[in-house]
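Need a sequence for this fold. Nothing fancy.
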């Protein structure tokens, strides 16, 4: 099973308000991301939150997701959210799609292409690119999770 870790623990300090729950079409920014993932057939969705957990839970009420709290989200390092998200996945997950919660323009066909590439090649990591630039979402096989758990946050 491929699961999704949706990173949504950021402070949105530049926006002055939680950008994840800003309106996007008939839903919110993160609601659109989740809908896209569901349309691609993913049904094990874990949203990593931080201090914004209460507002995200309210804004995502009714979505079939699991919330995972990152107590270290205030440090601004994304790696701790990735690690906590991966640790929350079901034992039967074989890979995780790492998704940014504030990218509502991801398209279902891109998610499907990433998953299809993984399933056909069994590459340990699948990263999309556009005009020679790496992008999101990316997929990581469970065989690499241990190495991700060992990564340390950068010193600033």
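Here you go.
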């Amino acid at each position: 099973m491929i699961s999704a870790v949706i990173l949504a623990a950021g402070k949105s300090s530049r926006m002055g308000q939680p950008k994840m729950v800003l309106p996007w079409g008939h839903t919110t920014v993160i609601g659109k991301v989740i809908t896209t993932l569901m349309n691609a057939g993913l049904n094990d969705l874990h949203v990593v939150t931080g201090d914004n957990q209460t507002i995200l839970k309210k804004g995502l009420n009714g979505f079939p997701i699991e919330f995972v709290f990152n107590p270290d989200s205030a440090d601004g390092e994304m790696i701790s959210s990735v690690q906590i998200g991966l640790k929350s996945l079901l034992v039967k997950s074989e890979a995780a799609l790492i998704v940014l919660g504030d990218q509502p323009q991801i398209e279902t066909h891109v998610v499907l292409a990433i998953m299809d590439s993984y399933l056909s090649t069994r590459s340990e990591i699948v990263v999309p690119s556009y005009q020679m630039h790496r992008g999101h979402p990316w997929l990581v096989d469970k065989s690499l999770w241990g190495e991700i758990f060992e990564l340390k946050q950068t010193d600033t």
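For context: The mean pLDDT is 91.
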